Amino acid sequence: MTQLTISSFFRRRLFTPIRSAVLCVMALAFISTLIAPVVMADSSCTPDATTTTPGGGLSTCQQELYSSGVYYFDITAGSDNTGSTCGSDGSQTGSTDTSTPGTAGLSGLSVSFVTKNYAFAQGLSVQYGIPWEAVVAQGIIESASGTSHFALTRNNFFGLGAVDSNPDAAYHYPTPEAGWKGYYDFIASNPRYRDHGVFKDPAITDPIAYIKDIKAAGYATDPTYVSKVGGVANAIGKLAATNGWQSSAQLAAANPEMLTNAAKYAAGSGSTGSTPGSGGSDSSDTSCSDGTSGGDSASLGVGKGAFKDIGEVNGYANVLANSQKTNDAFGDKLVGKGNCSFIVAIVWKGIDDPHIGFSGGAKNIWYEHKAQGHADRNVKKGAILIYSDSSLGHVAIYLGNNKVLNDGQIKDASYIEDSWHETYLGWIDPNDIGFPASQEASQSNLVKWLTRYESTNPYGV
User: Fold this and answer.
1) pLDDT single digits (tens) 309-329
2) Alpha-carbon distance 49 to 58, whole Å?
3) Residue 327: C-alpha distances to residues 51, 182, 192, 196, 425 (Å)
4) What is the rounded (10 degree) CA torsion for 412, 418, 420, 424?
5) Helical axes 108-128 vs 257-267, angle rounded to 10°
6) Which helix (H) or strand (E) holds 428?
7) What is the C-alpha to C-alpha distance for residues 142 and 11, in angstroms, rounded to an integer?
């Protein structure tokens, strides 16, 4: 009887959980083969044979790619950086990356990232004259296929604005689309890139030529950047061919304006002339915070609200540019601190002048300039919207398409009334009440002038 009891105990109490654990491990192993990126050996970068897991023979630089959702093989189609090997810090010895990227594979995560974003990137590539395959490849590497902290919380797929001394300076973008456009704007607004061949053949349609040009211009300090990004760009090109997506060369053939737009940026007429800087998450140049808006409210998308556009104020392009740069730099850091009028004055004017021309609370701009006001919702883009609540009121900049700059953050126009419960009074064109002509400011200057308003204003205006 005792033997039967022990046997029953082991059969019921011990064997069952062991069997369950074994089955669980087997199931997990099977699932991992479906979702894990397979990393194949690169003869110039990995000393050991093919492996399916990070570590165990993978060099530091390959583990870095693996963590970004990328697997690749034969990345250099020959010697990598003139035969050098990966260093312990993930970089390669040697100062110049002269290798030619070969073929690469993409993990399921990366394929999903490309599939989700390629169409939007293609549209921007036609607008700017930049090969979309290279930009999406950069997004994969620099945002871990859209899973990085900044990609998820700030729609920043390229680490723009972040520097080694202050990673948290990475820009905030209101939407993923704005985050992608922010990259194109950054490249277009920096003379150093056009000075190194960007916007000229072959970089307009050749992803590898483009990557080499921006690397030469100082976009990244990693000496293996061309190999890393180029290999992924080649893989994206193969994925595009398989799925019938147009390559950059095919886009240019079908859309001649792609070459025309590139020529404008190459000549400097397509950019805003912002302070030159370098970009990317490897940059340590704090001047890289300057960007450009593109001067078109359509880039903001269509927001929710009851306003109707009836034209624009004089200087609207500069107002929009300053608003987008402020949003990119601060996100919600200025929101709710009681500084709305100061923010509106500085952003609209484009100079360090926080005086908006009224006394007391923000709503007094309406009462003191009522003769110039319009108590309706047919609004010029770039006008100031005035609201009244039980205290001091509120002001915001109308950007068009029912989008506003609200305390330095671009939001739907309906937000102020629906979420803040402010009562709309009307709108005023600042040109009609003595504002100086609006001028475009560099993003670094806007940051310098507006940072003081991250603290609550004791006067609440």
Assistant:
1) 998 999 999 999 999 999 988
2) 9
3) 45, 11, 24, 29, 25
4) 80
5) 70
6) strand 423-428
7) 52
